[in-house]
User: Which sequence fits this backbone?
């Protein structure tokens, strides 16, 4: 059942993103920021943790999950003091950011970007 919930919740985030791309004039970077901020706000309101408990990686892997992790790290760090509140989000998301940079670099060695034709 975990896999089904992960697929459904992750799919819902993807559908929302696709609707925003097709139905609005928002650019992809703005949609990404909206998703990350949505994750932060939902975690701040204590609404994202139940979603994570239900869907697991279906809720933590998409962009709102990144915002959730940032907010969660900041909230946990704030309990320990100012310095931890500042560094907490970095500690929580460091592995994911490092992996994204590393794999992005490796892929860039094999492929060259091309601008879309207009």
Assistant:
């Amino acid at each position: 059942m975990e896999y089904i919930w992960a697929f459904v919740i992750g799919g819902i985030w993807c559908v929302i993103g696709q609707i925003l791309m097709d139905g609005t004039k928002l650019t992809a970077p703005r949609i990404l920021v909206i998703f990350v901020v949505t994750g932060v706000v939902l975690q701040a309101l204590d609404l994202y943790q139940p979603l994570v408990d239900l869907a697991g990686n279906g809720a933590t892997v998409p962009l709102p999950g990144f915002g959730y992790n940032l907010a969660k790290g900041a909230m946990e760090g704030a309990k320990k003091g100012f310095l931890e509140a500042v560094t907490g989000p970095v500690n929580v998301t460091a592995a994911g950011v490092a992996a994204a940079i590393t794999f992005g670099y490796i892929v860039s060695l094999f492929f060259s970007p091309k601008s879309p034709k207009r």
Q: What stands out?
A: The chain has one domain: 2-110. The chain has six helices and no strands.
